[in-house]
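Case study 2.
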Amino acid sequence: MLELIRAGGWLMLPIIACSIVAMAIICERFWSLQRKRVIPSHLVAHLWHQVKNKQLDAGQIRQVREASPLGRVLAAGLVNMQHSREIMMESIEDAGRHEAHGLERFLNTLGTIAAITPLLGLLGTVIGMIKVFSAITAHGVGNAPALAGGISEALITTAAGLSVAIPALIAFRYFRGLVDKYIVEMEQEALKLVEVIQGQRGARTEVGQ
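Prediction:
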């Protein structure tokens, strides 16, 4: 492995650095974007039960806010549940925008890595081919070791760049779709809570549908 890194030239260093950062982001996002951490099951039903039985106090709202992104969105509406539907929705939308930004954390960095690592590999290819033509100019086409060094550098950096970019792009697309899905679901859950509190959703359907 060290021989391949040396043969790839100095451009292998930023490619390796990008691979380390990408792996760290992927692991962190897999941990943070677990469904149970973002959208706990039956949270809206639990909150509505507490509201209906007048068991919800400021301490419980604080616990809900600290537990999950959905909890923070719902808590923004709960602290304004004595006000009109419009005020509740405005508070929820403000909190939702903030949580959406948090769910997208590091994704721009991951997308940037997916975009630049092939370019780093391409730059390595260009540098390697320049060395090949320089060797041809200096020694002619009969010096195989001199030509092989430039060609190997070109191929190794290209392969390394693509090896980092492909999984990074796959992960970026996956996490982007997952975040979009979570945002829609949080909006739906928040709307259910607003409707039952404001009396716009029947007791039979309440929040479980």
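Residues 12 and 122 are 12 Å apart (CA to CA).
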